[in-house]
Every structure is written in C-alpha cells, then in structure tokens.
Amino acid sequence: MAGYLLRRLLQVLVTLFLFVTLSFFLIQAQPGDYSSFYSLNPKLPPEVQSRVRAQFGLDRPLGEQYLLHLKNFATGNFGVSFSHYPQSVLEVILERLPRTAALFLTATVVSFYAGFFLGKMLAWRRGGWVEYSATISGVALFTVFTPWFALMMIWLFAFKLGWFPLGKFLDPLVWRNAPVSANQVFGYMLFTGAAIAVILFLAMLLLAQLGLRRRGWLPAAVAIICVASAVIAWAGSGVGYLALDILKHMVLPIATLTLISFAGTMLLTRNSMLETLREDYITAARAKGLPEKVVRDRHAARNALLPVVTSLVFSLAFAVDGGVITESVFSWPGMGLTLLDAVLSEDLPLAMGALVFVGLLALVAHAVADVLYVYLDPRIRYQ
Description:
Layout: H1 2-29, H2 36-39, H3 46-55, H4 62-75, H5 89-124, H6 129-142, H7 146-160, H8 182-210, H9 217-235, H10 240-276, H11 280-287, H12 292-317, H13 319-322, H14 324-330, H15 335-344, H16 348-376
C-alpha cells in the first residue's frame, strides 16, 4: 500500500507539472499579454508602456518567464490581482474559497446522505408508486436548468413569501454598526461547524466500539446536544445576530444545490444498487440465512457505494469553479463569482491562479478516490 501511495504521489506531481506547463503556454499563445489591459490606453507614452511590460516581467525571454512561473507556483506566489489591487491572488482565493466551501460542503454532505439512503431503499423495494414518483422527481431535479430553478427558489421563498433574503452575503443594515468584520464572524461559523463535525465523528466511532451505534436515538441525541450547545454559545457571544444574518443568506443557495445534487446521488445509488443486487454474492448471502437488513446494508449497499463515492469526491474538487452559476444567481461572493468577475475584467493572474488551484484539487480528488476504494471494497488490493 505504501508503494502504491508513493507511485500515486509521483503521478500527481508529474500531472500537476504538465497541467501548470500547459496552462502557461495556453495563456502565452493568446493574443496580447497581461499588460494589454493598461497599454491599450492611447494616452500612455511608449516609455510608460515599456515600463508596464517590464513590471509584469513580459520583456524577458519566454523560457525565463516559464521558469519564473514554475518558481512562483512552487512558492504560492500567483501575483497581484488586477481587480482586487493591492490584494494578491492567493489572498483573494483564501478569502473567497471558504465561502464556496461552506455552501458546497454543506449541500454535498446533506444530499449525499439523503440521496444514498433513499436510492438504496428505492432499489431494495423496487416497484410501486413510491419508486416511480421518486424516480421521476429525481430525473426532473437532476436535469432541471439550474439558473431557472435558482430564480424560482428566489421568486417563491424570497420574493413572494419573504422568508429569506433575495441574495448577497449579508444585509448592510444589520452590519452597519457591527463590532467585528463579516470575515471574522464567518470564520467563527466555519470553526463551529468543523468542531460539531469532529465531535459527531468521534461520537460515532465511540458508539461503534461500544456496540451502541444501531440504537438510532443515541446518534440523534448527540447531534441535538452539539447543535444546541453551539446555538447557546452563539446566543451569548454578542454577535449571534450577525451569524444569523449570514445563515439566512445561505439557506436558499444551499437548498438549491442540495435538491439538485440529491437527485443525482439518489439516481446513481439506485442504478448502482440494482446492478449489485444481481451479483452472486448477494444470492450467497441470502442463502446463508442472513437477515435482509444485513444483506442490504453490509453486502449490497457497501459495494454500490463505490461509484457514489467517486462522484462525491469529484464534485467536491470541482465545486470551486462549479459554483459560477449558483453564486452568480444568488450574488454570493465565493470562488465561482470571483472567477466570473476575473474573466470579465480580464484579471488574468486571478483567473490563472484559480485555474491551477482547481486542477490541484482535481488531482488530489483522484488520488483520494483510489485510496477510498480499498476500504470500501475488500476485493480491491493495491500492490
């Protein structure tokens, strides 16, 4: 296993090197350069244009620019963002990435558990109006035009019913005299969510070791206690109303992403589960007289989980740039909207840095999916 991990790491590094190289030469092959945004001004004299090119390092030979690009990538120096000057590209990415991660991680986790559970049950109890109605609804949600669906969510729940804000990250009126910044409050919220997730994970492990995990009320009780403790802590912090305002703005984007992702996970799980139920080891497990629940969960569902996990890992990797549509509709200032603005404003350093970052996440996701296969399917062994 250790040898396989080393080989996969080497493959990731080589692929990342080729990706960075290809991205650099694709940018170089396009007409103009980074300085075109400034040098197209006819009022700039030639000496100023030359100075601008020198500041960007564009007066150097192509080979020297390429080596400098590799050095900057290795050190995390992607340059300064044109549209967010004087912030660096890395600073902009680190500021916007948590906002996108909060949306997509929450929506992905909820949709994964709900979609896998419902898809498993639909395949196990195939036939009947429940399966047909759920399948038709899942297909409709999975193939829906995302911008239209997001606008309908805004129209119904924000405009007509007035339950949630129309969009944005926060309400300026609520934050007018706020004692802390929005990034600080959002950071505390992410820390709270991560702490709850870690506590729940450790509690599940402890209950499994004690043989109490099958008692459904215990995990639910632990989750309720964790959430209630967090709510009490925020209520007494003095900035709970600010966190509540951000949460209100997160509900509609998360609900939209969850419904669409949930449908895809449910359909994929159902199809994978139907294929698994035809395998010989399922027939053998039933022939042994094992309970139907054991056959379903430990034999069929576990093997049907492989393509679902692959889809989950890859969706997390591409969530950074996949949120362009959702974040644009809801005006959510995450990586998706930042990428769109960078392209529209010709902020090439920011677009290039985000592209490389997405490529790195995709490569890591491939490696993580391969390793997870070993633990999900005992038939797989890497040498």
